[in-house]
Amino acid sequence: MGDEFKPVHVWITAGTTQVVGDVVRAAEILLKHWPDEFANTDLHSAARLACLEAWQDDGEVSVARNSFHAAAQEAGILAPEEVRPSRGTDPRRRRGPRRG
Questions:
Q1: What DSSP designation does 52 have?
Q2: Is a pLDDT exceeding 70 seen at residue 74?
Q3: N or C: which end of the chain has fewer CB atoms below 10 A?
């Protein structure tokens, strides 16, 4: 699982995007947050299998990423890269408790 998973931006809910940057997160979205009407398509199945294989070091991370991207595009949840992640979904934006 050594090669890079270039980030894929997806819509999780209306107005909420998330940056998917690894095989584990891609698999979680494919299994738990995928639109029902696209949960049994060939592209969705291929993406799930590719992520599992990459996670088990039996497949290439780049194949998993490309499969996830294609399935997200088919499902209509691929977000443009220029859309900033929604608050709370980008780990670089984590902040401590507010002080008042």
A1: H
A2: yes
A3: C
Could you tell me the two tokens for 59? Answer: 């497949």
E strand or H helix at 73? helix 61-75
Cα 98 from Cα 80, distance rounded (Å) = 31
What pLDDT is attached to residue 69? Answer: 97
Q: pTM of the entire structure?
A: 0.79
In degrees rounded to 5, what are phi and psi of residue 23?
Answer: -65, -40
Query: What are the tokens at 31?
Result: 């299994």
Rounded Cα gap, residues 79 and 13, in angstroms: 11
DSSP letter string, 21-36: -SHHHHHHHHHHSS-G
Q: For residues 45 and 48, what is the distance between their CA atoms, to the nearest angstrom?
A: 5
Please choose, from the candidates 21, 19, 35, 24, the residue with its C-alpha nearest in 3D space to the C-alpha of residue 74. 35
